[in-house]
Amino acid sequence: MEAPCGGTGTCGKCKVRLQSPGAHPADENLIAFFNAEQIADGWRLACLYKVNTDIYVDLPPQSSVSNIVSQGYMKNFVHAPYARKVLNTGGNADLHLGNNIEAVNVANSTASCCGVAIDLGTTTVVASLVDLNGGREIDTLSCPNGQKAFGQDVITRIHYAGTNSGGTEILQKAIIKDLRNLLNALCRRHNLTMDNIYDVTVAANATMIHLLAGISPESMGKSPYMPAFQGVLSLSGLDLGLPVSPYCRVYCLPAVSSFVGGDITAGILACGLEDPSEKTLFIDIGTNGEIVLADGEHFCSCSCAAGPALEGMNISCGVQAAQGAIEDLFIDEHTVQYTTIGGEPANGICGSGLLAAVAEMRRTGIIDKSGRLLSHSLVKTVAGKKRFIIDDKQNIYLTQQDIRQVQLAKGAILSGIYTLLKTVGIKATELQRVVVAGQFGAHLKADSLIGSGLLPPEWEEIISYTGNTSKSGALICLLSYPERTVVEAIAKNIEYIELAQLEGYETLFVKCMQFDPSA
Amino acid sequence: MVRTKEEFLTELSRCVAEMDDEKVSGIAKEYIAAGYSALEGIVDGLVGGIQKASKLYEEEEYFIPELLICSDAMYNGLAVLRPHLPQDTVEEKPKIVIGVVEGDTHDIGKNLVRIMLEAAGYAIHDLGRDVPLRNFVAKAKEVQADVIAMSTLMSTTMPGMKRVIELLEEEGIRQDYKVIIGGAPISPAFAKAIQADGYSANAVEAVKLVDRLVQAEQ
């Protein structure tokens, strides 16, 4: 069961129905999510309900996560793995790590020299098994991040680590368990043993890396939001308890700041943003939107608190991108046509559907420049509140409040973009390439991104989707030792802008909430 | 154009409620030139307008940008009318100390609450963002505040709110102030758990909450 808010009773995503509700006093938190009838019927938030005796509960229909985007764009690079087996004069294989011979006669051939590239996401972990000598990706597996039980986003995880005794260790154990499972499964599927895994690279945000290493992330949760360490982290695979060779190091890609992590430097590396010939904007849209602008000379980055709306949270009929979620939508005068993930009957709307809906409502004039729902055959008033009806039968709709949530997210991201453009001193029209990375980006259409006003209108022709570049950046570091130097230099050279500290940021943020191309 | 006082007040109110932030100064000047009371112009004109805007926000017609333009319009009008208030007008406004708690620098929500409280006639002492917890208590004592309002966007800094209430208790002055809290990760349950006097989900609701708390006190 999802608990995005970490059990504080604010997200309403852990609804359950008590089979014999009894006389439970309805508190204020419940009223925000249920009407009186539902409360009487036994609906509660699982996170707030204190269990005193054995009870039976009904769970809401199970949602399963859709296919995880595990592949990402990769620039060309030289094949020169950090760990590799090299035949010695005696006909056996030595293990080389970087420029050193780490161990002699480790095997009788150079076969089965493998590494694993990991994208350690806050939501999902992706692990890719790689033949290091051959430079080939063998297999990829993913699983949900086991820390999800402790909150959906990094702030709730940091909060958990800081407020529970042994919190950091508990979260570390959870993620190590996931990594063990993935590594064991990959080995099993390809008849390998743990001794065949000689190298691991990890791309992740700063919080995930802190937790993986067992370092308290607490300082990142409070201004001035400083990480406990900076730069590359190289850990011993065995010390972490991973099923790998005793020689195996775990290389964690360096972060820029607490909120622009190694997953982003990995993306910059994978997309070749260091190439001076192109002015490129890189954006990873999520609860935290990270943006990097490269003009050939400078890198400038920021992180925007977009909130969870684009992940389907805090939206009346919002769901995660899973089977049955409306992912795209089209308004044809007085009817709404939509498609769902997997073609299943609609059970809600996910982030991409939400942006498509807002773009379509704007295009057809159902909402005005301020985001207000106007009179229209698809707009109904229920209990004094206006809503846009998507599917009346399935009872799927967007309320005015839902549209406001999108506007807040849009205000955060667009104001971040304009701030970077201004800082670097280039116009939106001068960009040659806009790269949309990440899990969420992969499900989006350019039409939705532009139409909903999340990205400036000038960019429609230059948007490209690069998929999971966090993983592909980790993969490059696994297969090319020199590229580690490149990513380390990138991390050092990126300027980080703390938006909240900027003079006039508030005015820009508010302006960017409106649907006005000239923002 | 010759207007009656009522027509003027209606027009001032309309300028604020309908975001006519450019026209409002001119109307206010004409109103003063016609010899009408500045105080009435403020109370029945400008403030009446911002109340209409708040209502539109509650009805979901307006959102944050609109509310801010309305408040701009109100301040433009106030800049004209205030100098014409009689010298002896002593405004006894309830006082509010407001700020974003230590550790958090996100203050857009707090600023909006401040603007709406100010518009509703409260005297605001804004401590800004990332405010050391003791400063809330010190400022409240210094200005003899009625209300202490705290906000945060990050769950990591929520415990600071509880700490401020504890500091008040330690000094034996908890009963002297109403403490209210808000921000994205805050819930009514959390407000109750730390024994705050109130919670509000948005700026317009915050005004109602403070009105209620301050009236109960009198």
Question: Any key phrases for this structure?
Answer:
heterodimer; A: 519 residues; alpha/beta; Nucleotidyltransferase, domain 5; 6-stranded mixed beta sheet; 14 helices; globular; B: 218 residues; Methyltransferase, Methionine Synthase (B12-binding Domains), Chain A, domain 1; Rossmann fold; 2 domains; 5-stranded parallel beta sheet; 9 helices; elongated
Describe the structure.
The complex is a heterodimer of chains A (519) and B (218). Chain A folds into four domains: 15-58, no CATH class; 83-265, 2-Layer Sandwich (Nucleotidyltransferase, domain 5); 272-307 and 406-512, Nucleotidyltransferase, domain 5; 317-355 and 364-397, no CATH class. Chain A is built from 14 helices and 24 strands. Chain A has helices at 28-31, 36-40, 154-163, 167-189, 206-213, 237-240, 262-270, 351-363, 400-424, 438-441, 446-451, 469-479, 481-493, 505-512, and strands at 15-18, 43-45, 57-58, 83-87, 93-97, 100-107, 114-120, 124-131, 136-144, 197-204, 233-236, 249-252, 280-284, 288-294, 299-305, 325-332, 335-340, 348-349, 379-382, 385-391, 396-399, 433-437, 463-467, 494-497. In chain A, strands 9-8-7-10-12-11 form a six-stranded mixed beta sheet, with helices on both faces. In chain A, strands 23-22-13-14-15-24 form a six-stranded mixed beta sheet, with helices on both faces. In chain A, a hairpin with a 2-residue loop joins strand 19 and strand 20 (385-391). In chain A, helix 3 packs across helix 4 (167-189), helix 7 (262-270) crosses helix 12 and helix 9 (400-424) crosses helix 14 (505-512). The longest helix of chain A has 25 residues, at 400-424. Chain A is globular and about 85 Å long. The model of chain A is unreliable at 62-66 (pLDDT under 50). Chain B has 218 residues and is an alpha/beta fold. Chain B folds into two domains: 5-84, Orthogonal Bundle (Methyltransferase, Methionine Synthase (B12-binding Domains), Chain A, domain 1), CATH 1.10.1240; 95-217, 3-Layer(aba) Sandwich (Rossmann fold), CATH 3.40.50.280.
